[in-house]
Write a structure and sequence with these properties.
Elements (H helix, E strand, L loop, with lengths): L11 H40 L1 H10 L6 H16 L9 H11 L5 H16 L7 H18 L4 H20 L2 H13 L4 H22 L17 H32 L4 H18 L8 H8 L5 H20 L7 H22 L8 H15 L3 H12 L5 H18 L7 H5 L29 E3 L4 H10 L5 E5 L5 E6 H5 L16 E2 L4 E2 L4 H11 L3 E6 L2 E7 H29 L4 E6 L20 E8 L2 E3 L12 E6 L5 H8 L6
Parallel strand pairs: 1-2, 5-6
Antiparallel strand pairs: 2-3, 3-4, 6-7, 8-11, 9-10, 9-11
Length: 667
């Protein structure tokens, strides 16, 4: 019987309709993303006119110092919104998107889109040093997520529409459809799967088309047609890449340190907004270019119209203004500030080369372009987004080679310094790891200290005879090994029954066990991970290794203990994620995370987690002990200097839970 090659495969028609539906929803999301970018830009202008405008000019004529108050007013208003109405709008947007993907299947509260456009518009309009892209991504993501929830789509498709919304917003605000698509894939989804690539790029193109049809197109930072003349320029670009990786690391750390600093201040949240706003405002009196997004200043740098000294001042000023704005509770992106800081530093690098010899850098501004791409590639850990967006927003594809060289080196060097990008570092501190495809192994996320076994009861002096050690091991079948100590009580190796039975036949029963003990082939450091321990086990073909701390050997790890702890940690993490989803669903609220430092006078010191008597709306997610993240269980004991991360749903209960955990023994 002949087979009809056109015969329909069962379920094929349904799959085709499903694909067409997703593509249609991606285009709808793209339209809203483009319109959202337009509305957001208009709202920034309205906020600026309201807070600065004619009022600002009047103030300037009477008292110039009063202008410094405007950023403080903006930050106080934003803090009120984030504190009472929508906590998700605090910060720079993208971490909130990644958190929803990791814990809630891509579900974001619809009102986040509403307040997510108001809060950053106020921050930027009042002069806060943040960018437009993070809020735009959050606005688009919020609509995509709401659309998926409204149509009761699966988590997979809801997450995909969330990424489509982010891509459309980024593509529209930068007039960069390719970079917008890569943003949705590389930063949000962390995958280049074909099933995601088509709808995400379609949404990005749709968003850009809608934006351009209303606001007009063109490269937002168009540069003169530069050409690389010096044949050694690529080497200089690679050197710039190394330096920008270090700057990117400082940028990521600066954002974290600033947020920690303001969080630890025992003052009302609105006072923090005033302090941060005054700092930014006063700095803006001397360097007005650092206020707001800063595209006009970036354009001057790309045209080579900013001198060496000014480049250095703007580089430092923008860095400080950005981390303070975010730390003090501002709402806005860190993408554009990264481009600004990278552009100033790259321009400074090129200007110095030009000063040394005009032949080394005949066009110093080329290094400003490369610096922009390199700093973002490093700090966001997104080289494709960085390279494509710089080529699209400048419109100069002659710079492809130097931009790629600089960004690639910067991305690589930064990855040696830390695995966290500026978007994921905050989540990591809460115990939420964003895994990207196959490039992160789960065993890298668990400290080796979680698998350490105590030396107590498992030690034997090196001068004890082989016969005595043999008898000890035979009488204790649960102990398969003993650690051998030298005269100074330092662990020098280990011994097992197998080692004793296969030792040199010329040795008698009275031979000191030190002579037959196996020496440590390597040592695991206490700040290393389970992955490091497993790699050493395989490399040296051993089953036991010592763990060295600041004051010597602190314990031992075996291959079995490492595998056991990894599995336990993985199961606990999965269970915790399920509990978070269940708690959010039962309360009808996505909830929020709070981090509480444990002081020496805290009532929680020496208490087990099960004794905290938390309300049913709260769940302890992770505990940070001496820099190491621990997935807690009921018997985990809390000590001074720990940092506890708690998930609370509904979000309105967060303040009462924080107050309960922050009490001292005297209260």
């Amino acid at each position: 019987m002949a087979i009809n090659v056109m015969q329909e495969i069962p379920g094929q028609r349904e799959h085709q309709w499903e694909t067409l539906m997703i593509l249609g929803l991606a285009m709808v999301t793209g339209v809203v993303g483009g319109l959202g970018a337009i509305l957001f830009r208009l709202m920034i202008g309205w906020a600026h006119s309201l807070l600065v405008g004619d009022v600002g000019m009047t103030m300037a004529r009477t008292n110039t110092l009063l202008i410094a108050v405007v950023p403080a007013i903006g930050l106080v208003l934003v803090n009120l919104i984030s504190h009472y109405l929508a906590r998700e709008v605090k910060g720079h947007g993208v971490p909130q998107i990644l958190e929803s993907l990791a814990l809630r299947g891509g579900k974001i509260r619809p009102r986040v889109g509403f307040f997510g456009i108001i809060a950053p518009a106020i921050t930027i309009g009042s002069g806060g040093s943040v960018g437009r892209e993070g809020p735009i991504a959050l606005i688009g993501a919020s609509f995509g997520s709401s659309l998926g929830q409204l149509l009761k789509l699966s988590d997979k498709y809801t997450s995909l529409l969330l990424a489509c919304g982010s891509a459309a917003g980024i593509g529209a605000t930068f007039n960069a459809p390719i970079a917008g698509g890569f943003f949705g894939l590389e930063i949000i989804l962390g995958t280049y799967a074909m099933g995601a690539m088509v709808p995400v790029f379609l949404a990005s193109v749709t968003g850009v088309t809608v934006f351009d049809s209303i606001m007009g197109g063109g490269a937002i930072l168009a540069t003169p047609p530069y050409h690389v003349i010096n044949h050694f320029a690529l080497l200089f670009m690679m050197g710039l890449g190394v330096l920008t990786a270090l700057i990117g690391f400082l940028y990521t750390r600066g954002l974290t340190v600033s947020e920690d600093l303001f969080d630890r201040m025992k003052i009302p949240f609105w006072v923090k907004g005033i302090l941060g706003g005054l700092f930014v405002g006063i700095a803006g009196l001397f360097m007005p270019q650092i206020l707001g997004v800063g595209y006009p200043t970036m354009h001057l740098a790309l045209d080579g119209r900013i001198f060496l000294g000014s480049l250095a001042l703007l580089f430092v000023g923008k860095y400080l203004a950005t981390i303070v704005t975010i730390g003090a509770g501002g709402s806005g992106g860190v993408f554009a500030p990264a481009l600004f800081i990278g552009g100033m530093f790259g321009g400074l690098f090129g200007a110095i080369l030009h000063q040394i010899s005009a032949n080394l850098a005949p066009h110093p501004a080329i290094y400003a372009v490369a610096g922009m791409a390199a700093l973002f590639a490093a700090s966001a850990q997104a080289p494709f987004v960085a390279i494509t967006i710089l080529l699209e927003i400048t419109g100069d594809y002659h710079l492809t080679a130097p931009v790629m060289a600089c960004a690639s080196v910067s991305y690589l060097v930064y990855s040696f310094l830390t695995r966290d990008s500026m978007y994921t570092v905050k989540l990591t501190r809460r115990g939420i790891r964003i895994l990207r495809g196959n490039d992160v192994r789960p065993t890298e996320e668990v400290s080796v200290m979680a698998a350490v076994e105590s030396l107590e009861g498992r030690q034997v002096a090196g001068d004890v005879s082989v016969r005595e050690v043999y008898q000890t091991l035979m009488m204790n079948p649960n102990e398969s090994w003993l650690v051998v100590l030298d005269k100074s009580k330092q662990a020098i190796g280990w011994v097992t029954l197998d080692i004793l039975l296969h030792s040199d036949n010329q040795m008698d029963d009275e031979t000191p066990v030190m002579r037959v003990a196996s020496r440590w082939p390597a040592v695991v450091r206490q700040n290393q991970s389970l992955d490091d321990a497993l790699r050493l086990f395989g490399l040296y073909d051993v089953e036991i290794l010592p763990v060295r701390g600041d004051r010597g050997i602190v314990g031992l790890v075996t291959e079995k203990s490492v595998i056991r702890v990894y599995h336990a940690s993985t199961l606990t993490t999965i269970d915790t994620a399920q509990q978070i989803r269940a708690l959010s669903a039962s309360e009808g609220d996505p909830g929020t995370f709070i981090e509480v430092p444990v002081g020496e006078t805290s009532w929680m010191v020496h208490q087990a987690v099960k004794n905290l008597a938390l309300p049913p709306q709260a769940l302890v997610v992770s505990i940070k002990k001496k820099g190491q993240l621990v997935v807690p269980h009921g018997n985990t004991v809390i000590e001074a200097d720990d940092r506890i991360t708690v998930f609370v749903a509904p979000s309105a209960a967060a303040d009462s839970v924080r107050r309960q955990l922050s009490k001292s023994v005297d209260e």
